[in-house]
Amino acid sequence: MGTYNFNDTALIVDGVFITGFADGTGISAEKLEDNFTTKTTADGIPVTSESNDKRGLITVTLDQTSPSLSYLNSKANSKDEYSAWVIAPNEKAGGSRARVRKPANKEFGKESSERTFEIEVLDYEAA
User: Fold this and answer.
1) Cα(113)–Cα(64) distance, rounded to whole angstroms?
2) pLDDT at 2
């Protein structure tokens, strides 16, 4: 068994290291569609359909005070594609064609709040 340390995980968007994550789950990554679907014919024969959908989603939760907040908001307002990768000691997820879906929602209160971004990756891969 090893030791886990979040500081060994990096999110890199268009060559820039993102920092200032909120407490809790700072980064999650997932493929948007299953690799295949199945059904059965009327006479009970199973049929498998392979999916060619390569899209994935990286969800990032930053603290309101994060120095990366304005950077990801500017990426959300851009129409350009760029790379986005989550890199951890034994895992990697992301791709070279990504876009931030929209600027983060904002809320203001007594304490700093969270800002969440969804980065859609068009050529998602995970290892």
Assistant:
1) 5
2) 84
